[in-house]
Design a protein that fits this description.
By secondary structure, the protein is α+β, with helices and mostly antiparallel strands. It contains 9 helices and 7 strands, in the order ααααααββααβββββα. It has helices spanning about 1-35, 45-60, 60-65, 85-95, 115-130, 140-150, 175, 180-190, 270-285, and strands at about 160, 165, 210-215, 220-230, 235-240, 245, 255. β4 (about 220-230) and β5 form a beta hairpin. α4 (about 85-95) crosses α5 (about 115-130) and α6 (about 140-150) packs across α9.
Length: about 290
């Protein structure tokens, strides 16, 4: 009988220890979740300065100096961010990355050395310190939408919210990722900075919308934009949205050009007022 009681006591003690451990684990997890919900450095100018230093090391390669957008990453000075605008959401995005985008988890992209939670919060404090108010456009967004799908024929090459052409980059998020001035320059001088194409998390650099001209083995010349490319093959789309796939060693010639297929829209083609209205439309879409 005493042996049975002793055995029961040991079993109960073991289960109690297991229960205590489970409760402790829940409490620790709750503490971590709570900690990731609040920025301990909010409004601290010293933390913002430290965050600027960390940002330059770990983030500027993609998001640009000053966080105003780079080749791979969007402008982070906007108050509204497509993947979450709260401190907690930004913390999770920096820590865990954003699936389906080029944003990697902390310390996995070869830039920087991986950041502590404290350093991530400092970066968020820095971003808050340079945050701009939502950009106010003086254009007429309603008329801009009419121009985009009408007389300006932007939709012939560009898509917004699933409607339009595929030759140029999708402009659904351009108003969220870039300033009005950036959009204006991209229209007036499209070759100044070629837009980014495919931005896969597995690629160190996304494909640019470079103009490519190939001459096939039978002498046919085809010009289009690069959709994908590696050392041996290239995939491109021509102005009529026809897709081509070539093995490079079977081509007579293969030439790249950093002159955009998009024409430069000067004021004789698109007035300042009409362009301002189109920009207003794109900014309004980006705010959604």
């Amino acid at each position: 009988m005493s042996r049975t009681c002793s055995l029961v006591s040991r079993i109960l003690a073991s289960r109690l220890r297991t229960l205590e451990f489970a409760v402790l684990l829940v409490l620790l997890t709750s503490v971590n979740v709570t900690a990731a919900d609040r920025n301990p450095f909010a409004g601290d100018p010293k933390a913002a300065k430290a965050g600027e230093f960390e940002f330059r090391i770990n983030c500027a390669f993609c998001h640009g100096l000053g966080a105003r957008g780079g080749g791979r990453g969007p402008d982070l000075t906007h108050a509204q961010k497509r993947h979450g605008s709260s401190d907690a959401e930004m913390f999770q995005n920096i820590s865990n990355g954003i699936p389906g985008t080029a944003m990697p988890a902390n310390g996995t992209n070869g830039q920087g050395v991986g950041m502590t939670d404290e350093e991530i919060w400092q970066i968020i404090t820095y971003l808050r310190s340079i945050q701009r108010r939502p950009e106010q456009s003086h254009g007429n967004a309603t008329h801009g939408k009419e121009m985009f799908y009408g007389d300006a024929n932007c939709s012939g090459c560009h898509m917004v919210e699933g409607k339009g052409g595929r030759l140029g980059p999708d402009l659904t998020t351009v108003g969220d990722a870039h300033t009005a001035d950036y959009i204006v320059v991209s229209v007036r001088n499209p070759s100044r900075r070629l837009a980014q194409g495919l931005a896969e998390a597995t690629k160190e650099f996304p494909q640019e919308y470079e103009t490519v001209t190939v001459v096939t083995a039978d002498g046919k010349e085809i010009t289009g934009v690069t959709l994908n490319e590696d050392s041996f093959t290239v995939q491109l789309m021509d102005a009529k949205e026809r897709l081509y796939f070539f093995e490079k060693d079977k081509l007579r010639s293969f030439k790249k050009s950093r002159v955009s297929l998009m024409p430069a829209y000067d004021t004789s083609l698109l007035s300042d007022k009409d362009l301002q209205d189109i920009v207003a439309y794109l900014l309004s879409v980006g705010e959604k």
